[in-house]
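Possible regression after last week's pipeline update?

I re-ran a chain I had predicted before the update to compare outputs. Posting the input and the new output here so someone can diff against the archived version. Not blocking, just want to make sure nothing changed silently.
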Amino acid sequence: MGQGTGDNPTQVTMQRQAGVQTQFVPEMPWYGYLACGLAMLPVGFAFLHAAFSGYLWLWPLALAAAATVTTKFTDGEGLSERATIATCRMMFYCTVSIFAAIPLYLCYFLWWGMWFFD
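New output (post-update):
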């Protein structure tokens, strides 16, 4: 007690440390992660398509470019904690989207195969 403005642990609280205000935001709910995962399905689909088309070497370049964008949150001594978290979350969503897109890609591959060999 005494550090926050509210007693509710899910409420956004403010804490003062060395005269600096730091805001603590609650974790994203499960449906937020689900929405992000569904939004990343095209990324997973693109990864699988690149893997089977011989362009898999472009994938690390895309991740590096996305991680570079997060460096706008730098703190003067490299990546800040905010940028590191953003990069880790982006890579997590990309990885999850790859596995989530496998059934989608298999359906696409079967449809394309039936059309191509018809």
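Follow-up from reviewer: compared with the archived run. Strands lie at 13-17, 20-24. Marking as no regression found.
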